[in-house]
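Support case: user asked for a sample of complex input and structure output to validate their parser. Sending the pair below.
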Amino acid sequence: MKKYRFLIARRAVQISILFLYFAANAYGWSILVGNLSSSTLLGFIPLSDPYAVLQMFMAGAVISSTLVVGALIIFIFYAIVGGRVFCSWVCPINMVTDLANYCRRVFGLNQIQKKQPATRKMRYWVLAISLILSFALGVGAFEFISPISMVHRGLVFGMGFGWAAIIVIFLFDLLVLKNGWCGHICPLGGFYSLISKFRVINVKYDNDKCTECMKCKLVCPEKQVLFMITKETMPVLSGECTNCARCIEVCDDDALGFFLKIDEKKAKEIDNENN
Amino acid sequence: MNNNNQKQKIKIEKISEGRRKFLNITKSVGIAVLGGFIWSAYVDEVKASSIVLRPPGALDEPDFLKTCIKCGMCVQACHFRDSNVMKNNDGDITGARPPTLKLAKPGDNLPIGTPFFIARDVPCFMCDDIPCVPVCPSGALDITKVSRKVEKEPEPVLDINMAKMGLAIVDTTNCIAFWGIQCDACYRACPILDKAITLEYKKNERTGKHAYLEPVVHSEFCTGCGLCELACVTDKPAIFVLPLEYALGKAGSHYIKGWDAKDEERLKNAHSETTTTKISEKSALDSLNNMDELEDLY
């Protein structure tokens, strides 16, 4: 159980948020109304996807004050806790890609296909292209193809052919590219990576405790952020870390854990004393 | 011998660091351009204006598409409006009838995620409190389009009769009232009774003793709610709502209603422009009497 505590917590958070949205449209609850693009919390707090609002701005739409406030609330929240907390704790696609990843490990697909033919920087290209296209076409370009919104809207308002998006992403991640969607292409993940630089919740790594079993790198969906494993004691600072905490729970040696950046000074002092 | 040649060839083809860097950048840019064009082609196709009815107060279609954030709050408000929910004795909501508004799903072949309604399935019931519009966070449903100033009221008051979701069109070929059969289903169903649809009486010359009761839609009152389309008795409705973009024509700005004082005001700021052609150089009489040019015709 201890090995899955964060995984279970993440699934619980993901499914509860989904259910609150679903219940709003199915039973008329008003705790969380709308969807991940824009919603109202408790009937009066506006929440909006800052990336969607940015696309609208590029498309030349007049941005209402409600959207500005909603996008700011979300932006500040994720800038503090880490933008990609959205990816691992909220986004419904995460469950699809995690399943694809799990299947890859179980079936040994990682062994027959070791070379990754694409760069993880692709998401920043996609992000840039989405903004250029929004400007050129006069509509939010990613919002028209986003499988995240498609699936989330589908679960709340009725699926249509939205299940096809789930299958496409599952098969792509399973057979074409490991961590293909979330780790390479998704511009929303790219956007949240960029606003994560100054987050206060980080994963920290202790090289002295590490026995180099490499379980953390096996489960990590963004394993380039764990470059320091077996090398040196330091926190995971890359914005691409999703704070999913899988590495923390699979570690048998207690070499990985969460820390608050506010404590960083303290940590450094202790470090200096030890040296 | 052949093998040796190939080995040498491979050595020659080894590329320098600078070239490697250049090729990598070119590759990235090339793939970005490729992806960008496929992506833009797709988005451009799906946003092509389709015949779709939007909620009350919606901006014009191009502005609506760029402003709507696709959150579905209008759909939720429509679904759980007071007039649509079933309640038990304690006042708890036990269920709701299907809403007018729906969000476009993949497979609906409409701009994805945007709200719309199909009048023949569930028309807009034109609620007085217009629940769908005030909840819109983005302003894609513009509250000013469905509210007006009222004397003694400090705030503008919601008025659903100002909505312009579309315009009802009568197919006079298949409407049975135009055949002479007595039917006024659409006239009775219209919430703006005797204004948006009126019945025009005409003598039925075929029988000599009956009247045609022909429904006529008046665009200045019709909101496009679609209750007439739902009520129509023909298999495929002979009265149906189309978006204004498809239902209305447009006269050029040089046509002015001289009998309408307000329209005449447009002349105040008008400027005139005289174009001179070869014929209008001279007075009309001169040019008509010009025998030289007339001879050229033969």
